[in-house]
Specification:
Elements: H1 3-15, H2 17-27, H3 33-101, H4 106-153
Helix pairs in contact: 3-4
Length: 158
């Protein structure tokens, strides 16, 4: 190396000497016990909150799973009930056709038809009443379940 290069290097070393000394001092710097305790306490609190969050998310997942399972179960029950009602309607229709076919007079056919219409009206009223009661119970049960599930998820306040 030339003298000029050595001179430039020495000038750079001298210029950065305070920074180099500071880095050496930082390596030997002692962290006060209060600062270490603060970090440990803060980390412990964060860990507890993370565990609480995880537990809450597990509860929320359970609530959602229960709600979905109940919804699927109710949908299946409604579907079965509708299928059963449709089948009963078809059976009733063909039974009525058989009765009408066996009528020996026009008056008897009119009487059979009137009885069928009256019976059909009674069935419709009965189904409407049952449907209203079922939906009312379903809404009440769903509201109660939602309230219970909400309480399960939010048992701990911040």
């Amino acid at each position: 190396m030339t003298t000029e290069t050595n001179s430039v290097l020495n000038n750079v070393k001298e210029a950065f000497a305070p920074v180099t000394d500071a880095f050496k001092s930082i390596q030997n710097l002692e962290v006060p016990e209060a600062a270490r305790d603060f970090v440990k306490k803060t980390a412990g609190t964060a860990k507890d909150r993370a565990a609480d969050f995880y537990a809450g998310s597990e509860k929320a997942t359970d609530v959602i799973e229960t709600a979905v399972a109940n919804s699927v179960s109710e949908a299946a029950k409604i579907s079965r009930t509708i299928q059963q009602a449709l089948y009963q309607d078809v059976e009733t229709f063909f039974a009525g056709i058989d009765k009408l076919a066996s009528a020996k007079s026009l008056n008897e056919a009119v009487q059979i038809q009137s009885d069928m219409v009256r019976a059909r009206g009674e069935v419709l009223v009965s189904r409407a009443k049952s449907t209203t009661e079922y939906l009312g119970k379903l809404v009440a049960d769903s509201a109660k379940t939602a309230q219970d599930n909400f309480a399960k998820v939010y048992t701990k306040t911040a």
